[in-house]
Amino acid sequence: MFIAKNNDLIILAKETREELEQALQLMVYTSIEETDIDYQFYGGEYLTPEEIEVKERERLDALSMTRSDFFDGFILAFGLGQTELRAIVENILNQINITDVEIKVALNNFDNALNFYRKHTLFSLLSGIDIPITEEKTINIASTQWDKFFDETSKQNPDAYKFLIK
User: Fold this and answer.
1) Average pLDDT, stretch 4-21?
2) Count: domains in the chain
């Protein structure tokens, strides 16, 4: 792969030098370099896969949804409303190894947040653990499922709740 740079900013990447030179005829650039890195166009710029991963994590962590959307999703996915889910969350928080202050903060967010943010610690605490929803049934929501649920809800996908179900 060949890349064109303007100072340290990659402005274009092409498979061959000829393709790159043709594309750059009307652009200003400071150098053409050959690289083994597979740069990809993401968010208006060429980035390495590692840079894309960081940007994507930042994007997902910035997602939020209304309380109504969150609880609607849980009702549709598992039949659990706010009251039932809060009791389950409180029980789980009391069983895992976190401080009383961390429990209070998580429950305060659960009870009082106007919106739920993907980056909130509560979703990390509830990722990848068995959550009993009835005496016979437990669920386990992976971090990637939370990501998809928040992402699809932000896109107003009415089926976003399905990403909570394995």
Assistant:
1) 82
2) 2
pLDDT over 90 percentage in the chain = 63
Q: Is residue 75 part of a domain?
A: yes
Domain carrying residue 13: 2-52
- Alpha helices (H) along the chain: 17-23, 49-61, 67-78, 82-95, 100-112, 121-125, 143-154
SS (H, E, C) 36-52: CCCCEEECCEEECHHHH
Same domain, 151 and 81: yes
CB 99: neighbour CB atoms within 10 A?
8
Residues 6+ apart with CB under 8 A from 146: 118, 123, 126, 127
CA 125 – CA 119 distance, rounded (Å): 11
